[in-house]
Amino acid sequence: MPGTGAVPLGLRVLALAALLACSGVRRVRGGGLSNIVVIVTDDQDQNLGGMTPMKKTKSLIGDAGATFVNSFTVTPLCCPSRCSILTGRYPHNHLVRNNSLAGNCSSAAWRGGAEAAAFPVFLSKRRYQTFFAGKYLNQYGLKEAGGVGHVPPGWDQWHALVGNSRYYNYTLSTNGVEEKHGDNYTDDYLTDVIAERALRFLDNRSPQRPFFLMLAPPAPHRPWTAAPQYRTSFGDVKAPRDGSFDKTAKDKHWLLRQPVNPMPDSTVAFLDDAYRRRWQTLLSVDDLVEKLVRKLEELKELNDTYVFFTSDNGYHTGQFSLPIDKRQLYEFDIRTPLLVRGPGVNANVTLKAPVLNIDLAPTFLDIAGVNASALDADGLSFLPLMAPSLRNGSRRPDFLVEHTGEGLSGADPTCPKLGPGLSHCFPDCVCEDSFNNTYACVRTLDGRVDMQYCEFADSESFVEVYDLSSDPHQLENIVKKVDPAVLEKMNRRLIKLQSCQGAGCRALST
């Protein structure tokens, strides 16, 4: 119940150098370095149709490059996930645990520690022109989190949202100066503002130096406010009813045993509406991608630019009778979209090797010619995985997924009968998080074994185990059926991953 709760490095470098030479992956552009553009959406799932509305993005990035079908976040929550993208580290190393200031989201400890050694710092040293626009971290810009005057090191142009995702009536930190926005679509719709400022930056940049753009639109995060032209789109669409939709979770952690099953009609109607509105907001992101790619074409930079498209975490709408959120250990919350195009990346390829969001920063540095060990990252560059010779290979037998739950010190006003320790509750007492919704999982996906082993930090020491090769929707917790020797092996692997750091994590991944 609620409570508190390998291959030597030198050989790898030589092999990578040989691979890049043979595969045509280029690091230089007219005597300079390749450009990089990264689009990070907010709460866009891979498993439940999150990419379906994005036809332009799939055509302009996926069909022109690589689609990673096994892309994961190492933590299914916005702030710690974004910190993992920025640092290339697991949460237990960057120390941002959840979306709260107490959980180190944009805290003084973050600003004085991991943020000061994030990848933009190294790109800036390589003379990249760096640009950021959109959502940074959930607590960013608040007075107690350093205020709007705080511009993280490494960024030349800074247009960051203060606080959590909004579409209208928000505040930006524009190069450290407060900029308030209202509710006029033409001037204020945040996804379009991000696109317009990115295009302006590209027009005004120095052509003699490479550029790095990171664009973080609010979509499809709540409150799901679509642009006027898209408010009636997908009128007949409903949340998918297959897989684990509205299934009972009797063999799962206590938090998932609470939801009413089957879900009330009012809950189903609510999540169907949320599903449609999420798709509607993504149409503006699709437009952003198209504008960006067309601008790069116009400037004759597209062939020398890597374009990445991904999300900070997945999402659920009715799975195991949980209405809407993320924060759970299941595939729908930890799988994310990942599309990449760029120099040396073959068109229209599907890559099966597992990649993590902690691999993004090392990949950016790899493109920039920076030794990723300088970042002290836990992740690995996946630049070589985009070469045909390694298309279906995997250098990572398993990896870590971790989450630190959030709960209120008092009872959630939406559901007072359950007492303290819970959060993000709905009126029918379905709560999406709690203090002891704190877990760590080892996820094994090596071409032969497809399993997940998870331990909860609670009074039950609850364990969940899934064989995803036979049970892709994680309907049955098989912890009582698995050979104890297998459980012991996975437990040992989990312990190593939970305590790994930097080169130690990389050694476990090869």
Strands in their spatial order, largest beta sheet: 9-8-7-6-10-3-11-14-4-15
Largest sheet: 10 strands, mixed
Give the termini separation.
39 Å
Low-confidence stretches: 1-30
Gyration radius over CA:
22 Å
- What's the overall average pLDDT, rounded? 92
What percent of residues are in strands? 15-25%
Please count the beta strands (DSSP E, at least 2 residues each).
22
Q: Which bin fits the share of residues in helices? A: 25-40%
Give an account of the 3D structure:
The chain is an alpha/beta fold and about 500 residues long. It is built from 13 helices and 22 strands. The protein has helices at about 10-25, 55-60, 80-85, 90-95, 110, 120-125, 185-190, 190-205, 265-300, 330-335, 360-365, 485-500, 505-510; strands spanning about 30, 30-35, 35-40, 65-70, 70, 130-135, 155-160, 170-175, 175-180, 210-215, 305-310, 315, 325, 340, 350, 355, 400-405, 420-425, 430-435, 440-445, 450-455, 465. Helix 2 (about 55-60) crosses helix 9 (about 265-300) and helix 8 packs parallel to helix 9. The two termini are about 40 Å apart. Residues about 1-30 have low confidence and may be disordered.
Task: Write the SSE topology.
Layout: H1 9-23, E1 28-29, E2 32-33, E3 35-41, H2 55-62, E4 66-68, E5 71-72, H3 78-87, H4 91-94, H5 108-112, H6 119-125, E6 129-135, E7 157-161, E8 171-174, E9 177-180, H7 185-188, H8 190-204, E10 211-216, H9 265-298, E11 305-311, E12 316-317, E13 324-325, H10 331-334, E14 338-341, E15 349-351, E16 355-356, H11 360-367, E17 398-403, E18 422-425, E19 431-434, E20 439-445, E21 450-456, E22 463-467, H12 484-499, H13 503-508
Parallel strand pairs: 3-10, 3-11, 4-15, 5-16, 6-7, 6-10
Antiparallel strand pairs: 1-2, 4-14, 7-8, 8-9, 11-14, 12-13, 17-20, 18-19, 20-21, 21-22
Helix pairs in contact: 2-9, 8-9
